[in-house]
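New to this. Comment on this protein:
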Amino acid sequence: MSRRGRKAALPLGDHRRPPVLAPDTLQVTHVAEDGVKKATYDFVAMPVPQQLQRELAEVFAAKAGPDGVWKSTASSREAWLILLYFSRFLAAQNPAPAALSELSAKAWAAWRISRTPNSTGRRQIRKVAQLLKEHPRVPEETRQLMTKRVGKDTVKETAYLEADFDKIKKVVTRRFRAALHRIRDNQHHLKRWRDGEFTEGSDEYLAGEALDHLIRTGEIPHYTGSDNRRRPIPRYTQSLGGASAPYTWMRLFLTSEEACALIVLFIATYGWNASPVESMKVPDASPDAGNEKQTIYRVELHKKRRGAKTQYETRNLTDWGANSPGRLIAEAIEATEPARQALASVGQPTDRLIAWHLARRPADDFEPAELFDTGIRDNVWRNWREDLGDGLKLNLRRLRKTVVIAHQRTPSQHTRDTHDEVYLLPDPRTHAEAAPVISAGINEAIDVAQSAFQARVSRAETDAGDDTPTASCTGYRKSPFSEAGSPCRASFLMCTACPNAVITPRHLPRLAYLYEVLGELNAVLDAAVWDQDWRDPYLRLSGLRAAPDFTDTEWNDALNEVTADEKAMIDQLLRKGYDA
């Protein structure tokens, strides 16, 4: 923490950790994994008795300590807020528990029921259970309830439509590119000043002098007035065109909104998660061995996982010009380099890629490094609504999902199972693209089934009430040729191609007669008509005739046993099929 309680934005050269749970207080200090950002939480704010306050502080400190699972202050902040809600809930109970040993199973069940039945409510239940279930003073009955499974969240976010995705990318590209050109132009002016190109005392000279002071201190030259307030020196603001941000510090540094645009552009271009982009270090650059005009950037991505694990990945991106994979990396380094130079100049260097200048001076007695921050702040995202318009909201998860599903089409910083379950399967775009593939597969399966004998032959009698003209049906609403659950609409000629059909000796007379009639049709029909309508059922019956299920004698006897009614039924059905 800075001396006024403000969050330190960047390395201060001293990364010693303060005690997690301060002695004789209920304050827990969490230092992020990078040793930079800190947050302090005072459990006196919990509206519960002091004993319960201390127990909650102890379990919180265990997670926030050097060996804890929380790697960022965002994680500890979320847990703190959830514990605050939980403490308020406990304070409203009658009787209210004074310690964890008094946390009854009934109270825990009431807490679960009180949570909103959505992903936020389920997350609150899980977080509190994770913090408390291992504490030795929690009653066993309550502990058992804490281990009870909480329903899995349903994935509701879908990829953006291409038009919306393109609009978002154009907006952030325009915002970042404007900042890049502004900083590039002023860097060029500064270089010319350092090379002595301007006449001393001229506006160009004074502007260059102000830029030199800006890149060394983070602000243009100031003086302290009689009221002890700092003010910019007028001759410099006159040469720069004004005293407001666009004329002063914005000449060399990104704003928080522009840094946000850069992060969004990274996600929309590479499909990376937001957290690795925010914490990304400046990539190493090396010339391509085969082409000195090309530069290869080695990008390190650190993605924090649940628990204490962190996933490390590296990507090599080559910059050979406009629209090349590494061009955005080169431009990001160029746009943020002045901020790193300023921090190095004041003795507080950083290797973070995303570095930007605060819009307001922290206080009159600030440290120079407090003018800068890295990553991005949550409230910045809300400023994008007017830029996007038409009710379009910026959602980084949806943005990444669009890149992964529609553009890359391969897993990125996640497993194949996660890619299928979380990204592909729930998304309407996948459903739409899969529909013709599924339809083609069904049609292919039908084509295969039409020429393949699938019926089962059995000597056991079946219920005559389930009979079709050629077999006994065991799955009238489970037909492979109709939608699941609907009645079968296939021709009786398809029964021999259906796995639901059972052929018994009772059906053999009709099958024998059908086989003879189809053979006669083969002799009189045009070859194309025969192949299209009658060939497959005839081949299936030929296969049954040649199989050992029924003997030649049984086939001959069956043909003699077929009744006039059965012949009339077969003839009528065939006539309908032929006329169709």
